[in-house]
Amino acid sequence: MKLKGDNKMKPLIGITASMDLPGKEYTANNDYIEAITRMGGIPIVLPYLSDKQDIKVIVEKLDGLYATGGYDIDPTLFNEEPHPNLGKVVPKRDQFELMLIEETLRVNKPILAVCRGAQVLNIVVGGDMYQDIYQQIKEPLIQHQQRAPAGHGSHFVQVEKDSLLYKLTEMEQFKVNSRHHQANRHVPEPLLISGRSSDNIVEAIESITHDFVLGLQWHPENMLAEQDDEPSTKIFAGFIEACKGGNG
Question: Which one is catalytic: 97, 103, 115, 243?
Answer without folding.
Answer: 115
